[in-house]
Amino acid sequence: MQIIIVMIVLEVFEIYIQKADTLGEMIENLYHYYNKNIFIFFLIHPTFYYVLGVTLYFDTFNFYSITILVFKGFDLFFKMELIKQRYYEPVMDVELEKMMTLKMTLGVKFLAPFTYVPLLYLSIMT
């Protein structure tokens, strides 16, 4: 039970660190960490490492844990790609530029805890 509570706390921490009204604002906030040091950027995503540690500790390399790790990995690298496109490339793709202006609803912000926490629970219990 403590494992699930820690996961919820870490997910809420990530929501707090990455809080923004639009995807563009979130990428801008993340860029400040990325620009200081890429390791800081990776450190503000603790749930990836936590799930990896729980998976290794309990030896639960099943569908649920692998799904969490794959989605978290894609999330990290997609954010890095958006940072690269926005701040390091001369021109950003038109589709990505439109995505950056979309409002993030409360449901989108809390999608990760409502998805990853049950998957972690299922991973440990199977």
Short description:
This protein is mainly alpha-helical and 126 residues long. It has helices at residues 2-17, 23-36, 38-43, 46-58, 63-88, 94-100, 106-109, 111-125.
Annotation keywords:
8 helices, mainly alpha, elongated, 126 residues
3D architecture notes:
The protein has 126 residues and is mostly helical. The protein has one domain. It has eight helices and no strands. The longest helix has 26 residues. The radius of gyration is 15 Å and the shape is elongated.
For the secondary structure, the number of strands is: 0
In round numbers, the mean pLDDT is: 94
Spans where pLDDT lies below 50 across 5 or more residues: none
The biggest sheet, with number of strands, parallel, antiparallel or mixed sense and barrel status, is: none
Strand content: under 5%
Domain unit count: 1
Rg over alpha carbons: 15 Å
Number of helices: 8
Structural class: mainly alpha
**Secondary structure: helix percent:** over 70%
- Overall outline: elongated
The CA-CA distance between the termini, in Å, is 15 Å
Helix/strand order, N-terminal first:
HHHHHHHH
